[in-house]
Please model this.
Amino acid sequence: MEVKRVVTGYLDENCYLLIQNGTCLVIDPGDEYPKIIEEIGDNKVLAVLITHSHFDHIGALRNFLTKRSIKIFKRSNLEEKEYSIGDFHFKCLYTPGHSKDSVSFYFEEEKKMFVGDFVFKESVGRCDLPGGDEEELHESIQKLMTYPEDIILYPGHYDETTLKYEKENNPFF
Model:
């Protein structure tokens, strides 16, 4: 599975394109729909996954909603379980704290987790916005700590990291 990062909008939000066998999943289309589509190229979009519904993560979502064949996965229609979409297999994890609707998507075979604004390199997402909750964030971190240390974490802003690195360097862990 190829992972492309497309940085969008004035908050430099990370939109991720997961590409495999001519198909694509889009994670958090924040803004700049034409830029995202250009990076998708000839790959067929199967679904859009939303880590949370803050404006900087869903700004281009309305453009994908016009395509009836594309499924939208977000907290309101997800359970904490495994999903398969085409050749993509992932588990949804509820990871509230930054927002009530925060979820993370774990692709176990590839050892990749897309965490939105739940975790950043050496930090975590803000809890002082509406729907944020520091206690819930701490519980979500404890849940994350049970996963293998070598997984790569792909945040909603800034650079990727690993769980091992965060356990050793993130003061919130």
Summary: The chain has a mean pLDDT of 96. Helices lie at 33-40, 55-58, 61-65, 134-144, 163-169.
